[in-house]
Amino acid sequence: MKKFLCFSLILLAFACASDPQKEMEKTIVGEWCNPYTYQSTGELKGFHFKKGGDCEAINIPSLELKSWEIKDGYLIVKGQEVAEDGTKEVYETKERIGLLTRDSLSLVVQEANPRLAFLYINAKKLKK
Question: Which residue ranges does the record assign to the Lipocalin-like domain (predicted)?
Answer without folding.
Answer: 25-112
